[in-house]
Design a protein that fits this description.
homodimer, alpha/beta, Rossmann fold, five-stranded parallel beta sheet, 15 helices
Chain lengths: ~425, ~425
């Protein structure tokens, strides 16, 4: 009997990924279907729908779901959901497709899925603007005027939405591929059923998830260790989806986590995994998404630190923690989010504390603390500078240094937003 | 609206302490009543009943309560309770008292309370042995034979029970005094209503309690700081009741806590308090008692480390954590214990971790860790030796050193059991 939190939505893991004969048959059929070209973000969402990571979603959202999620954090059936998961297409694609058609979703390399189209709806500029304001506006840009002054240039999530085609297609999908993830990240890429199996085998009940999209330093290690002290174990869950230029590639980040886990963790209390999504940089809303899909992976707690899933100054430092107190808690089996936040303040090494601490536990001054922005860190590493003591673990810094020695000429060091996130 | 956990028992805080006119009247009446001489343990229990710390108890237990608590962890009305809270007396006292009598409970200095006697029952040697085996036998002495080989000589809790008179008296009490506590520990001694008020004023909901009966070193600080990271605040709650020779007096311990809180804590996340009980050294059962009365003080979490409330080798290292999984959870309003354990493994400073850690978070070797038994610590301090780096905070060690410089000649350094506890 599993002690883990059940998947979100009350329907178990809803996995739309085909296998075996069904997969072979559907692949064959897909060749003859009209194709819609999908974006990298849609590709990641699709794989999550395939593996059950986005349970209870079985496909892309209808207009009513889209509206309900934006206005009330609820799907049209009353289940909690925090961000739109939609499939966009061009006007030409839309014109060629009738309701009831089966279509093939093509990522440029392979047919990722088929979909039975149940609804088509326009996404006007006004709709997209509405989606952006609902999804991405936070305390950093409290008015639409503030927001739009910088959002198009500086917010990658906004850019993704505004670049979408003028129509969305809705319907249930049959997923045919997990793309490169199972092979490229063998042993790290885990489906929700697999992480649940690992947790069950260890007898875990309360599992905390750490969301990671940057190399893991002592601040992240500290978050994990607090979780290990108070939960059965921690799931270090890295984004291995597509990245922006200048970000540290997932392979390097995974190697850093490995080094850290091997040298500084008690193995039986930690599991490492990767998931195929692109960042939306939706801050508070994305923190909720992170908790929602972590529930599907078997986690009952989601570690939320400062500026979770943030970019630039769009969100308040702890807005992603506060939103958990504001979301609706629908009644009915599986309707509410069951993965609760493990909220942790800004963390750092403090010389006077003689160890890691946070703003909740350290009463000392700024100069007693080792603080380093992500931007500064990359600058030091890429220029061969020395990192301050206690900031990172030697084994991790060494991996990063080698990576930067190899790539300094090739990648831009100034990053697109990733400097402030986790 | 308070966000705190309600008091245990579903009846609010049951406070049997009289005040104002009622107190003056009862004091006058008490002078004319037959007296029963009470033990220090009973005195502490009485003050807890007075302040609501032992809610829902309104007096000393009947035989049925005593038996229910020992056999099933339940009072006769089905409410959870972990240890006997009984009033013993001599054969002569018993003979002079009739059911229905009001009596005065005298501690040797003052009349602490009056009690309406509703039941008298014999405590034979067999009964006391039964109470001891149920209350104090743990994994360290799994058979009665093992237990009794050492219990009478080495277990202060057993000694207390076996030294009791041959009868118990039951009935509701009216408490007339809190003895020296409110003046001697002004600002530290808090009633449950007072700690709740402080917590409410800070807007706290989830409060963790740290039980403390030894000077506070970095291990205890670390337990508190984990609690501060994951709860609204921590209540550092020291035993200021009577001590055995060789223990550090409460005043000194309180001073150490002050120094620690002032220099190493963020004040708004910590409250210090003292409570008037004697240790029973009942290990697992006492951990449950600690959680039960902390619920009354407003705490929803009770920090349980290694060998909580232990003495010698009577209990397994984590038996006091495990018992929380084994106790009954009665249904009905207020019947079940609502203060849940915050279980934390053995903690220490580790050089390789470069900070505090526990056996759950540190994968390194014994020689990488700063470990020091309580006995060794006292030896070093009393002999003017140097403590290993990172074990304690300088400000605290300084206070202890001064205390030992003054008292080394006066107190025995080898302690009665306190070496292993918290």
């Amino acid at each position: 009997m599993s002690k883990l939190v059940p998947p979100h939505g009350g329907k178990g893991l809803v996995c739309m990924l085909l296998e075996g004969d069904a997969l072979a048959k559907e692949k064959e059929k897909a060749k003859g279907l009209k194709q819609v070209k999908i974006s990298p973000r849609v590709k990641g969402d699709l794989i999550m729908i395939g593996t059950g990571g986005f349970s209870p979603l079985n496909g892309f959202m209808t207009k009513a779901d889209w509206k309900g999620v934006l206005d009330k954090f609820l799907l049209s059936d009353g289940t909690f959901w925090p961000v739109p998961v939609t499939l966009d297409c061009t006007a030409a694609e839309e014109a060629a497709i009738k309701i009831g058609d089966e279509i093939a979703l093509f990522d440029g390399k392979e047919i990722m899925a088929t979909m039975k189209v149940t609804e088509k709806y326009a996404m006007t500029e006004a709709d997209k603007i509405y989606e952006c304001e609902k999804t991405f506006m936070g305390e950093g840009t409290p008015t639409a005027e503030d927001f739009w002054k910088i959002a198009k240039a500086d917010h990658p999530g906004v850019q993704m939405v505004m670049a979408q085609g003028p129509f969305n297609l809705a319907g249930p999908v049959k997923v045919l591929s997990e793309a490169e993830y199972p092979t490229k990240y063998a042993g790290v890429y885990l489906r929700p059923a697999e992480s649940r199996k690992v947790f069950d085998e260890r007898g875990w009940g309360e599992v905390a998830a750490l969301q990671l999209r940057n190399p893991m330093h002592r601040s992240h290690e500290y978050l994990c260790k607090i979780a290990v002290e108070v939960c059965d174990g921690v799931f270090i869950h890295s984004l291995v989806g597509n990245l922006k230029p200048g970000d540290i590639p997932a392979e390097v980040r995974v190697k850093c986590i490995d080094a850290l886990v091997q040298n500084y963790f008690v193995p039986k209390h930690v599991v490492q995994g990767g998931y195929p999504l692109d960042m939306r940089y939706a801050g508070p809303r994305e923190a909720l998404l992170h908790a929602t899909f972590r529930q599907n992976y078997g986690c009952s707690r989601m570690i939320i630190g400062r500026d979770h899933a943030g970019v630039g100054d769009f969100y308040g430092m702890f807005e992603a923690q506060d939103i958990f107190n504001k979301i609706p808690c629908p009644t009915g089996e599986g309707k509410a989010l069951l993965c609760t936040p493990l909220k942790i303040d800004w963390t750092f090494y403090c010389f006077k504390c003689d160890g890691m601490a946070s703003l909740r536990t350290c009463p000392h001054k700024k100069e007693d603390r080792v603080l380093l922005s992500g931007t500064m860190l990359r600058k030091l590493l890429s220029e061969g500078g020395t990192l301050p003591d206690h900031f990172g673990r030697d084994e991790v810094v060494e991996i990063l240094r080698k990576y930067y020695e190899g790539v300094t000429d090739k990648v831009e060091v100034k990053l697109h937003g990733a400097a402030t996130g986790k």
